[in-house]
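Progress report, Aim 2. The chain analyzed during this reporting quarter is listed below.
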Amino acid sequence: MNLRAARIVFVKELFETLRDRRTLLAMVVLPMCLYPLIGIGAIQWIGAEEARRAEQPSRVALLGPRWPPLERALSEAKPGYELRRDVKQAKLEQALSEASVDIVVAVPGQLADHQRDGTVTVELFFDDTRARSALAHRRMAATLGELAE
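Predicted structure tokens for the chain:
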């Protein structure tokens, strides 16, 4: 087949495609209208989910000795924290994996040992693969930063 015959067939097929309104609608008009709507809808849905999560309190398990300044800061924080002391060290991973808590704040050892030099060591355990847990970590880091000041 020579190049001239191929060109004639190509032009014929192109004109037939341009005459067919359904094909034009499916190839050009529909994607130009539909894809932006799908993108905007997805962005709106993600924003609404983030706003809903931000309003929910973070579930915090406290391990170790009681530290009243931390507990006071957590109870006064907005949007707030749900404090739990019933999680044991042995059940820590299970509580995080089952999503019964969002973050675990552990003060290892005795509080008096940490407060001698004016600092308190705190360990945070969270599941970065869960959005609620990652949000709780960001909140807790901010709360501990304010407490350190």
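The helical segments are 3-19, 21-55, 68-76, 92-97, 111-115, 131-148. The chain has a mean pLDDT of 82. These observations will guide the mutagenesis work planned for the next reporting period.
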